[in-house]
Amino acid sequence: MRTGLPARVGQYTALLAYLVFLALPFLWLLSTAFKPPRELGSLHPTWLPRDPTLANFRQAFDEQPLLHAALNSLLAALGAAVLAVLIATPAAYAVARHRTRLARAVTGWVVVSQAFPFVLLIIPLFLVLKNLRMIDSVPGLVLVYVVWALPFALWMLAGYVRAVPRELEEAAAVDGAGRVRTLVSVTAPLLAPGIVATGLFAFVTAWNEFFFALVLLKTPEKQTLPVVLTHFIGAEGVADLGPLAAAAFLATLPSLAVFALIQRRITGNMLTGAVKS
């Protein structure tokens, strides 16, 4: 007990320090959103606003079309989530159930593709969308988000498919069900938690994405929320801190709520894919 107690104290201390490190930016953002201009320019800033105000939120909505930008982000995120799930589900089933060289090659490519930087992908994606006449459009942005989310979505769902007992599918085959019928009627209902987690992951990724939206969307009416947030920064790089913090705080809430729903399922998928039945 004497040797274990210092180790546990050290672990909990390190965990607490890490949580504080992660929470500090969000807490400072929240504090800044409610501070009046005179406190934002103070040489001695405080964690808690001395005179809290909602003026920053009103100014943010008056200066920029946040609701319209949020609607564009919502459409892009929902479209990407739905398409990613529809494509990744049968692909993950094929990769998980048919362990051939091709399936292993696909799995390896999925892992390698996650290392590609955004800059490497934007040029070919831009050329493809230009040929399809989908530049400066939300549907074109949805296709880009689907391409970006598919590798991880495929990896996630493959872990859930491996956790489904093969005996259930074999019983369905004995009853005369084909591959498609088995996937739709037997496997898919058991994959519901994984499908939901994958869809929510794709949604969060698309909701927070900035670089692709900045490059592909030029019309102000079509820009997403992360791009509109940059409009609170002037030409000389001076930010309007109060409205920017208020708008950024509101834009962060949906992704935090969704991540709170999926974090346990993502962790469970990691463990599921690592254990063989």
UniProtKB/TrEMBL annotation:
Give the UniProt family note: Belongs to the binding-protein-dependent transport system permease family.
Q: What is this protein called?
A: Carbohydrate ABC transporter permease
Q: Which InterPro entries match?
A: BP-dep_ABC_trans_perm, MetI-like, MetI-like_sf
- Domain ABC transmembrane type-1, by residue range, is 70-262
Q: Which residues cross the membrane?
A: 12-30, 74-96, 108-129, 141-161, 182-207, 244-262
State the UniProt keywords alphabetically: Cell membrane, Membrane, Transmembrane, Transmembrane helix, Transport
Location of the protein in the cell: Cell membrane
Report the membrane topology from the UniProt record: Multi-pass membrane protein
Domain of life of the organism encoding this protein? Bacteria
